[in-house]
Amino acid sequence: MSQPVTPRRTTRSSAGSASDPASPSKSRPKSTPRRQLIPAASKEEEGEDERSAINALLEALPGRRAQASDLLRLLAPAPALPLLLYGGAATGKTRALLLALRHIRPRPRRVAYAALRSLPSPRALFASLLSQLSPPTSSSASSRQRVPDKPSDFVAALRDALASLCAQGEAVYLVFDNLEVVRSWDKGGQLLALILRLHDLLRLPQVVLVYVSSATPDAYYSMTGSVEPNHIYFPDYAVDEVRDILMRGHSNPKLYTSFLSVALKPLFRVTRRVDELGAALEPLFRRYCEPLGDLKAVPDESTKRRLFEHIQPHLAVALNETFSVPMRASVDQCKDGNSGVKASTKRQFGSRDSLSTELEFHMSVSAKYLLLSAFLASRNPATLDAALFDSTGGSDNHKRKRKSSQASMNMKDTMVEEMLMKGPGTFPLERLLAIFQCITSVSEDALNDVECPDSMMNGSGMTGLMSDVLLQLSTLCNSNFLSKSRSCPLEGAARYRSNIDEDLALKVARSVSFPLSKYIYRR
Amino acid sequence: MSAPSGDTPLTAANNIQPFLVLHKAAASSVPSSHARRRIQTSQPSSPSTYLADRCHDAARVQCEDEGDLDLYEQLRLEAFQQTWSKIQSTIDEVLKGINLKLFDQVLQWVKESFSLVRAIARPHHTEVQQSYPLLTDVICKRIPTAFILTKNAEFVDDITTFRDLAGHLESNGCHLAKLSATELSAKHGVGGCFRSLLRQLLSDVPDVAGVSVLASWYCEAENYDKPIIVIIDDLEQCSGDVLGELVLMLSEWVIKIPIFFVMGIATTLDAPKKLLSSEALQRLEPWKLTLGSPSDRMNALVEAILVKPCAGFCIGHEVAMFLRNYFFRHDGTITSFISALKLACSKHFSLEPLSFLCVGMLEEDCEEFWRDKFEALPQQIRKYAFGFPSCASAKISSNSSNNIIEGLSKLLRLQKDWGSVLLCLYEAGRHDKVQLLDIFCEAVNPDLQTENVLFVSEVTCESLSGVKSGCGKRSITQVINTIRHLPMETLLHVLEVWSNHLKGMSEIGMSEINDKVKELQSTTISADSVRLAKEKWTRRSAASTGNGTDPLNEKAAVLLQDVTRKYLVPVECLPFHEIICFKNVDVLQSALIGNPRRMVQLDLLKSQSHLKCSCCRNGTAVSGSLHDTSIMCNLAQEYGDVINLHDWYMTFEGIINSTNSKAKRKSYSSPSKKKSKPSSPEGKAMIQARFCRAVTEMQITGLVRMPSKRRPDLVQRIAFGP
């Protein structure tokens, strides 16, 4: 049950009438054993309650024993200092906190939770906190209330809201999750200081401030003069802990254990984040089960070996892809693809890049040439244009080869190195158009073969291709192949830069059979 | 590109130059021949000057029947509207059919994802509205996301696709919001983008909007238990930071509020990887869907509009080639192809006097329709109809209406046969990735008929040597070669489709062919069942050696070749095809491509012929009575890449002064009296001012570029050539 705000008595009464499905999540068989464990714990006698609560908490938080007991200790009778939970992403901070808040004695009177990530502005934060603290009867009306603009107004409003709650004598918890997000907000520094100093500003002993952040305390408390809070560090999980977490709630633990023994270790070397591992392992497990007819069966040694051989190639692929998006084909393609899987698997991990030598999307021929010329303009130094695109179209390369002294060779080397370090260069529109004209005039002959000689496009030659170059240019800019620097559009002084990598450029060149490698400057 | 033609008068309706459109209304309101004569156009000088002449003839014919002119113009306009609405509806149907498959896939994906999300947890209303996350066993909260690959770098075609997709999903019980690249820009930030998302879902968006507002809206009874789909149609143009933040923000809530993304990607799947941070990527559960590629859509469109006679309008070979090149080389969008086709259609109906007969193609009793219309025609137009060169070559000389009706029905019949044969060719060719547009372009080539003898011998030649099969020029040859190497199952399928295509044909010859196909099919089946195992073995060996194809394949190929030779008669070889077929590619090209800078320059150079004033008639020398900019443009022709400003000014001054002195001699009373003394400082200032204004005008029209700092006395020429 995920209702930490409700006073404990209600929870118990609902749990006491065991058959009564108090909440929909409980009535559904899907809800996991762990989720039922917690209200079940409250059924126990008062004396054992404390210990069993901790046990339940520890059960729900594998690998977080120390942190959980710290949490219970630091949160329980209204502490004097704020609390900061920090640690890397997906280390269970929020989960531990929410579970702990459910178990502490005395029960918290009210919890206001603000996930800063899902609040787009400071005002939204103020509104969200105030509406959570105001009495539930007027909650619909409170959203219509005026939301304070200034931080000072907010503090005043917050104190009003809290004072009435605190008068009843029980603790109120204010939780700020994803605190690190605020730093990137507009005027985030001021807001961050305000949030961190709330303890000093409010001076209400019943109010417990809890911050959850993926950044360390140094990031916050070095600059503000506020009191340093208690903090709890959540370290990354170890491999066994990850296994425990992943194992939870699996229908066939034996099978999954054998799978994890194969797949977890290699992937763990790549990433330690549980969420990433979970996402990466899920499709792999499906693959792993493919040869099995019955998913409930307990695998014996020979099956395990067979499954291992089946999964190994896919594992190798997955290792390279952990940070990329695993794409799934559509249903039809899946069905078609299944037959071809065996044939393609070998090819897949042999040379994955060769899989897609063809251009996957449609572009008009002139756009392709424009893209190629942009690529060349970005890659080659401008001083080389004259040599590459002379009147003969750069076809006689031997002319350029001349004996050069050692010194000039060295200089060239450093220049090339410099170019590589700088990445793709920028170029003005004129240079792009000049190269475009050159390479289209060279390949005009090739195009003539393809089309019928009596077609009229030949009459006007490549001027036909030139006619709407600017349109094509904007298309390329829109699809992020080129980026354009901002400057006065009338003067035409904008500079462009091509963002494509050589693979794509080569693909495009192949599709129009243009000898790109002849024009790329390299040594 | 265009040069002034003779002084042939044109009706305003026949006036096709885009820059004279403004005159149209005036001319039609005053339908006197005098008014018309004043509008002199520069008819494009084209290789097919015949067509222009024909238009002029037609215009002349019509001039004599003033009263009928309006009537026929009206008829043609109606015919155009009827024809185009038919074509448009066909296009819509075809595109809808193609898209529907994708839409259903998306819908299925939405349903599956929704049930998956609901399987994780089924939160109660109160739980959804709580601000803190649900405690579930889900390790990673990921938003189901469909990446739709549109497979075209150009985005225009897909705007309608995504609009239709939104409609389709909404009608199937999803909440829908569309975010565009402008909303997902760094300027608006994630707040603005989220606000516009809310605005599309909620009727009343509060002043301060967080996700909790969305949650409480979602908990209302009529909104609950439906997925929310957010469509972002052009992912590449979005700001990666903002989109990433939005993804992170919504992914926290995905179990409580099932929001799914549908994103359109124009290029490759690398686009989201490049755009989004790995953290945001991790929160997406992607699913790839692909749209039909533009060439697939093109094939479907060509089949529906051009091959099957859907509207009684067709295009000639040159126009087809032009459209094909325009599609593959320049634009690559279906949208512009359709607009080009529409332009061709409208040009046809406005240029061809008899084009209103096209509509007859769609009538139930077309012969009756044509008889009615043709009997009513005045003598001149009838004569004109028999003056078509296609009639001359077919030696139809008598003037009776029966002839033309017969001719048109034959045309219609042969067109249908032609279409069926073409589809047969395509059915075989699609296994070798031959595009229908290519086959179409080849099949409308009027030289095809004359080449046929040669063509057969070439086929045998080629099949022996086995070279040059991939050449685009001979896609029909390629198709026939493909047949020879088709595997048996595919061949069977192809034969089945053939018999379907040929079924509709009424002609005796066609049914004969159909019988042959049937026969072939039956032999194939029997042969197939008998020696299936053996077949495979031999086929493999045949493929490896390259010679010695299967006899059945050979038979099919011979049959197809035969049918092609007999029935693939290009429309341009038939009498009276001018009525339904649009061939004037120059008109289409100038209307489509325009080339404004060049036109401006040409008009400046030839301003005398446009203005028709009395003063500057003398053709060769640049006269001072011309407009200043026109003088300057003429003078600029004498220079190369750069123009020396001083020289330019001096010549300009010389020309102005010479006119002024001439004017003085002739003692005109004009305001130029003041300028008569060229040495006076006032006159010089005036000339300088005029010079400056002319240069600026040329700069604005894009003919010259202003001097650079390095060389302040030289302007650069941008536009060249006469």
UniProtKB/TrEMBL annotation, chain A:
Gene3D superfamilies, per database record: P-loop containing nucleotide triphosphate hydrolases
UniProt GO cellular component terms: nuclear origin of replication recognition complex
Segments forming domain Orc1-like AAA ATPase: 61-204
UniProt entry tagged with the keyword ATP-binding: yes
UniProt keyword ATP-binding present: yes
The entry's keywords: ATP-binding, DNA replication, Nucleotide-binding, Nucleus
Pfam family membership, one: AAA_16
MF terms in GO: ATP binding; DNA replication origin binding
Gene Ontology process terms (BP): DNA replication initiation
Record-annotated ORC5 lid domain positions: 256-308
Localization: Nucleus
InterPro entries, alphabetized: AAA_16, ORC5, ORC5_C, ORC5_lid, P-loop_NTPase
Annotated spans, Disordered: 1-50, 388-409
Record field: compositional bias (Low complexity): 12-26
Domain Origin recognition complex subunit 5 C-terminal: 363-520
Protein family according to the UniProt entry: Belongs to the ORC5 family.
Quaternary data: Component of the origin recognition complex (ORC) composed of at least ORC1, ORC2, ORC3, ORC4, ORC5 and ORC6. ORC is regulated in a cell-cycle and development dependent manner. It is sequentially assembled at the exit from anaphase of mitosis and disassembled as cells enter S phase.
Function summary: Component of the origin recognition complex (ORC) that binds origins of replication. DNA-binding is ATP-dependent. The specific DNA sequences that define origins of replication have not been identified yet. ORC is required to assemble the pre-replication complex necessary to initiate DNA replication.
Protein's recorded name: Uncharacterized protein
Organism: Panicum hallii
From TrEMBL, chain B:
Keyword line: DNA replication, DNA-binding, Nucleus
GO biological process: DNA replication initiation
Keyword Nucleus: yes
Compartments reported by the entry: Nucleus
The organism's place on the tree of life at top rank: Eukaryota
Main location as per UniProt: nucleus
GO molecular function: DNA replication origin binding
Keyword Phosphoprotein attached: no
Comp. bias intervals (Basic residues): 663-677
Boundaries of every Origin recognition complex subunit 3 winged helix C-terminal domain copy: 597-720
Pfam families, alphabetized: ORC3_N, WHD_ORC
Origin recognition complex subunit 3 N-terminal domain mapped to chain residues: 64-357
Region (Disordered): 31-50, 663-684
GO terms under cellular component: DNA replication preinitiation complex; nuclear origin of replication recognition complex; nuclear pre-replicative complex
Family recorded in the similarity comment: Belongs to the ORC3 family.
Name the record gives this protein: Uncharacterized protein
Organism: Panicum hallii
